């Protein structure tokens, strides 16, 4: 299918397949799960922010196919600035803000009890760093990274949220997202997020 796109100097001819065009749609203006995201539900006590980055994509950039469940589901890597002096551990929570399950953003992945001395997770990571543990995701307790599997249509926003805590998360609070959030409340010293965009691949390349 050929699409004509108006521009300042006339008409530019762009060749796109129907599937490719559908896969490139911008996210909806309204993010249905924004107010239910962890970074909103458990705000930091002070004004200090963590700056979160990834070697795989930039803020509001496209998440590479290999880092999604459509591809190889490879962890993209994550880095953040050091938390306040009283930080005892970090928690990372990945949620899809454009899709809800049981009234909450889809929970893709969590990691808890990351030691205060650790401020990055390597790309391709296959196990938590020493002392850290996988937390719950939509499938249950203690699950490894589950990358986006965005359905065809508009892109979705995936929030990689990092929290600096003045405590650690006890084992009994790792059974569910509800338990995890309850254990984090009043303990968040600083937080930050990196938002990546996920999309379905063209139909002829999807698994």
Report on this model:
9% of the residues lie in helices and 33% in strands. It is mostly beta strands. The chain has one domain: Alpha-Beta Complex (Phosphatidylethanolamine-binding Protein), CATH 3.90.280.10. A hairpin with a 2-residue loop joins strand 1 and strand 2. The two termini are 23 Å apart.
Q: How much of the residues is beta strand, in percent?
A: 25-35%
The SSE string, one letter per element, is EEHHEEEEEEEEHE
**Number of DSSP strand runs:** 11
In terms of quaternary structure, the protein is single chain
Low-confidence stretches: 1-23
User: What Rg do the Cα atoms give?
Assistant: 18 Å
Shape: globular
Main beta-sheet annotation: 6 strands, mixed
Estimate the helix proportion, in percent.
under 10%
Backbone structural class: mainly beta
CATH first level: Alpha Beta
Overall pLDDT, averaged? 89
Distance between the termini: 23 Å
- The CATH homologous superfamily is termed PEBP-like
Topology-level CATH name: Phosphatidylethanolamine-binding Protein
Helix count, per DSSP? 3
Strand order of the largest sheet: 4-11-10-6-7-9
Specify the CATH architecture. Alpha-Beta Complex
Give the total of domains. Answer: 1
């Amino acid at each position: 299918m050929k699409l004509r796109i108006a521009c300042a100097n006339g008409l530019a001819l762009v060749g796109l397949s129907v599937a490719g065009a559908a896969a490139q749609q911008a996210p909806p203006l309204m993010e249905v799960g924004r107010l239910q995201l962890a970074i909103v539900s458990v705000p930091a006590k002070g004004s200090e922010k963590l700056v979160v980055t990834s070697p795989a994509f930039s803020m509001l950039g496209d998440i590479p196919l290999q880092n999604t469940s459509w591809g190889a589901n490879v962890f993209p890597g994550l880095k953040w600035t050091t938390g306040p002096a009283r930080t005892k551990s970090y928690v990372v929570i990945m949620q899809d803000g454009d899709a809800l399950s049981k009234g909450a953003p889809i929970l893709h992945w969590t990691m808890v009890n990351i030691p205060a001395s650790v401020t990055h997770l390597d790309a391709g990571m296959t196990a938590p760093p020493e002392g850290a543990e996988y937390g719950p995701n939509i499938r249950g307790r203690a699950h490894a990274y589950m990358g986006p599997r965005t359905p065809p249509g508009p892109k979705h926003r995936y929030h990689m949220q990092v929290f600096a805590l003045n405590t650690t998360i006890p084992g009994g609070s790792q059974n569910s997202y509800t338990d995890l959030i309850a254990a984090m409340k009043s303990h968040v010293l600083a937080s930050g997020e990196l938002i990546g965009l996920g999309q379905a691949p063209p139909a002829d390349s999807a698994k």
